[in-house]
Amino acid sequence: GTYETLLVERRGRVGLITLNRPKVLNALNAALAAELTAVLAAFDRDAALGCTVITGSEKAFAAGADITEMAGKTYPQARIEDFIAVWDGFARLRKPVIAAVGGFALGGGCELAMMCDLIIAADGARFGQPEIRLGIVPGIGGTQRLVRAIGKAKAMEMVLTGRMMDAAEAERAGLVARVVPAADLLAEAMRTAEAIAAMPLPAVLAAKDCVDRAYELTLAEGIRYERQAFYALFASADQKEGMAAFLEKRPPAFRHG
Ligand code: HXC
Known about the structure:
Enzyme class: lyase
Bound molecules: hexanoyl-coenzyme A
Number of strands: 10
Helix content: 40-55%
Strand order of the largest sheet: 1-2-3-5-7-10
Shape: globular
EC number: 4.2.1.17
Family: Belongs to the enoyl-CoA hydratase/isomerase family.
Low-confidence stretches: none
Number of helices: 11
Protein name: Enoyl-CoA hydratase
Keywords: Lyase
């Protein structure tokens, strides 16, 4: 279909979503949140796809929640609308999502990138949580995910001062998987997504699920969880194929099942 706030395409087994509100640096309004989460859910259900890339423009991945839309909200309105809840669908996605971040990833834009499974950044990317300057705090998980990603000291500094990190600092701090030249950002993100989408899907789903558990479980529980997932993969055709192909010194032909 066509979208008001997104460009959406499929390239082989990879779904590509480009945030497309260029006049406001891809500010995340309600329409964008609804369209983005709906497309992500549809891609997640689509057996022909194995991975999704979300990107923006070279100037901005997303400059945060749409301040024009938020400015006049009252407390009861915010509470009753619960306008952040639209993002909860992210936690139900089972296939990997890559954020390809060029330019500004601020506020909700930084939080959106952090909700993705991994971030690949252009050398010109800037990450920040400037909400404090607006009299609010991050609202889509930023205070929690940033601490886990980069540690308390840097997270606290960013959330209290609104200071932006450049791509090099973000990579050193562990926020991003890789920094690439801006001109190569989409190609590199697509290459990574294609590599993931070519992997046997049962193992991909298990890998993402297990890594995510590390945020929520104790080490002992997480290790038990991983072991069950590990054993369960011996019920997949792709495990038989992957190991047979290795032993027969030929490339595997995965069925994603
Ligand atoms: C609405 C925005 C916007 C935003 C930019 N624009 N960010 N509109 N919401 N978050 C608009 C500007 O008003 C401007 O519109 C146009 O986009 C271009 O932006 P400029 O400011 O002119 O560009 P520049 O001078 O290059 O500065 C870029 C910038 C700055 C540093 C990124 O735009 C900025 O500080 N933006 C706000 C960042 C921010 O505070 N984000 C957190 C939002 S709160 P016009 O009409 O003038 O051309 C948040 C909470 C999330 O994210 C959790 C709850 C859901």
